[in-house]
Amino acid sequence: MQLLNEILNFNNTFVEEKSYEVYQTTKFPDKRMVVVSCMDTRLVELLPRAMNLRNGDFKLIKNAGAVISHPFGSVMRSILVAVYELQADEVFVIGHYQCGMSNVDPIRLIDKFKERGISEDTIDTIKYSGIQIEKWLEGFDSVEESVQNSVDVVRRHPLMPADVPVHGLVISPETGKLDLVKDGYEEK
Asked: Are 35 and 60 in contact (CB under 8 A)?
């Protein structure tokens, strides 16, 4: 059975048995916070549990490496919507140790694109359109520095209110231990 069919069959049962009822909440986070975190599979359940967060407590934005690379990209837009429209009062940027984005080699990644059928012409078109693809795909050497850089992007954003603390942390994917990189209350 293909994965999609497996998911849809399960979902039919989930809805019929009203299993969704335990997850019902509002669109406003109870703990009035937004978390930017990595998409790593080890963090799906571990991160909220390690922070004592449940469904409905927080807004969660996930991407590769918990990196906020552009002040006017979709991650920053989501943070601003969470703050201005969804009552989030604090921002947490949380990277993790042994992240797949650490030491990503953009050239090797582009080679993998080609191996999967992406043509050199397509890559050239992206480059000619002004995208520095190698820079865009670049990882990081230090998760702590990456988290600090992302915190700085949020904190310095011209549309971010000065009264919103922006915290930076790194979590262990083995134990859930959180290490503080930046205490956002110090900025106030």
From this structure: yes
